[in-house]
Amino acid sequence: MALTASPETQALLLDLQRFDTALQQLAHRARTLPERAAVTALKEDAERIKAAVVETSGHLEDARLELGRVESDVELVEKRIARDSERLQSSSSVKDIQGLEHELGSLQARLGDLEEIELAVMERIELLEAAANGARETLKAHSARLATAESELREALAAIESERAGIEADRAALAARIPADLLALYEKQRERYGTGASHLRARVSSASGVTLTGSDLEMVRRAAPDEVILCPDSNAILVRTAESGL
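and the corresponding structure tokens:
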């Protein structure tokens, strides 16, 4: 037995479809918010900045360790110079004196090389400290921008959620006025084809945008006003009104 419902009841489906279309649009808005894209881009930049901070800090730590090794070598050479200098002052052996003087010359040359290396490493550390501080400041500023963007996204989503809740409440109130069998058919067609109800206006189905002609139009004309029929193109419930042009 064909499903029937008064034309006025069937017309309620058009309002229901408008609510569902609005909800779909809201869902699309939520997915494509510019605030969401901004947050995504900032998060990607944050990962690169964090990586730069880690890399720069790693280079700085390596340089500090190198400086520690050089300073240890400098201290060792200075101790050997002090020891040999004391031995030189107390030695009376010409051979020992010559040997100590030669060793002291080598140690002084080694100390000079180490001090040059030490100075170069210290200068490198100074540059790396500036780079590390700059990277951390950049990350701090970027984190603040990200926090602001995330707050703006939350506000935008909250506004959409508030609008969605209002529409869903209105939809629920409207759905309660529609017979269960008609509502079930609407939901089934909407889930399967994307649209539950189509308005036939001037012989054009709003769901498909196609003008009904020939046998399709004749089928619609023959149907009783309370018979529930489907659009031959979109498979949505075809709702006829005074604007249908039949």
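(Above: one complete record from the training split.) The two ends are 25 Å apart (CA to CA).
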